[in-house]
Amino acid sequence: MDLSFYKSSLSEEIRDEGRAEGRAEGIARGILLLLAQAGVDVPEEARERVMGCADLDILSRWLLRAPTATSVEDVFAVG
């Protein structure tokens, strides 16, 4: 059985993408959990925005804001 594909650069790229997607999903879930813990109402549109974001830098910024947010707008604020 030829297993060379599993060592190929394409295979590694696919695994890297999967890991990045997993990290993004984990951070997004963390943001929503922190907001829920704080009693912040998260409308479905905002929930979809968080869960649909794949940019780790943006998600990290939102994650840092979530613990002190009093509204979902605090999380998404620019600046």
Give a nutshell description of this structure.
By secondary structure, the protein is mostly helical.
Number of strands: 0
The helical percent reads 55-70%
Biggest beta-sheet profile: none
The global form is: elongated
* Low-confidence blocks of residues: none
Describe the structure.
The protein has one domain. It is built from four helices and no strands. It has helices at 9-37, 44-52, 56-65, 72-76. Helix 1 (9-37) packs antiparallel against helix 2 and helix 1 (9-37) runs parallel beside helix 3. The termini are far apart. The mean pLDDT is 89.
Notable characteristics:
mainly alpha
Task: Give the SSE map.
Elements (H helix, E strand, L loop, with lengths): L8 H29 L6 H9 L3 H10 L6 H5 L3
Helix pairs in contact: 1-2, 1-3
